[in-house]
Amino acid sequence: MLRALIMCRLAAYSGPPRSLHSLWLAPPHSLEVQSYAPREMTTARLNADGFGMVWYTDAEPAPARYRTVLPLWADENVRAMARHLVTGCALANVRSATVGMPVQLSNVSPFVDGRWAFTHNGFVRDFSATLARRVRESLDDARYAAIEGNTDSELIGAFVMTRLAALTPGSDPTDAVGGALEALSSMAGAQLALLNVVVTDGAWIVAMRHAVNGEAPTLYRRERAGAVELASEPLDDDGWEAVAKGAIVTVSPHRQLSCRTF
Question: Where are the domains of the chain?
């Protein structure tokens, strides 16, 4: 039943410091616009079930985070503060809840674990009845204890972050993210699993466009003016390139972009 497939929209930025308003609200096809008028979603019309963003500063390694269950277009707090929040690395998501999943704050991404932030655009069919237990049992104790909501996205994020927790701080996380999604793909078997993800620690960004037994959601990238941007849909009409199916994109701390099939 394809009508049960619900997907979010996400975006990420690494580059010279910019306000969150310029990133998520000002572009002609901004995340705010994508919350009520997405162009490339095939199974839902709105992303009205919450909004979340993280941004990194010099204050501490862990990101600041703001989440709400309101649609982005309806949250006056975001509009009031976004011009004043300036960052060189940020990640955001507008949520379209999977059918049957509650609209509650604990289910809104990005999910944060120490310095890491994670967001997911996709869906795993019958996740609770099939993969959920196996994913939970694969988590380390810290990630298992930190689960607050009941979405596939949070558990997938915890699974990826369990792999990331084993890395030396500052090391390239590409293989850890790709390996985690490879393991999830194996667990999925014949299940439909749409697994676009973005992970960042404020220095590295890793994104993957991936699906098992189905078509991966759209993902685009752009390099411009010393910055790298990623988005489910282009935020404007200037220089965006589609990320190939099955590709993993890495943005280094020096904002060097690489893209390869994993």
Answer: 2-261
